[in-house]
Design goal:
By secondary structure, the protein is of the alpha+beta class. It has a domain of 54 residues. The chain contains 2 helices and 4 strands. Strands 2-1-3-4 form a 4-stranded antiparallel beta sheet, covered by helices on one side. The chain is elongated and about 45 Å long.
Length: 79
């Protein structure tokens, strides 16, 4: 049985100099459930949100840094 890795521990250890934090972009389906995710690297929360825009294609996306929600970007909804 695989053990769950405590992601909170990662926040206690700084990244190596020059390393960019890895964010997760969760693709949210029409039922408001996570369909999949994509890892992205960015220097700041704002850069992560901007990079996540490329995944908005018929679904919303949420950007997370470990257990911290950065934001949610909505798809263009048809009227």
């Amino acid at each position: 049985m695989a053990a769950c890795f405590p992601f909170a521990l990662l926040a206690r250890y700084p990244l190596e100099e020059g390393a960019m934090p890895t964010y997760r972009v969760y693709l949210i389906d029409a039922r408001d459930r996570v369909a999949s995710y994509r890892p992205i690297e960015a220097n700041t929360d704002a850069e992560a949100l901007e990079a996540a825009r490329r995944f908005i294609d018929g679904c919303d996306v949420e950007v997370w840094d470990l257990d911290r929600k950065i934001g949610r970007l909505g798809r263009v909804r048809e009227s």
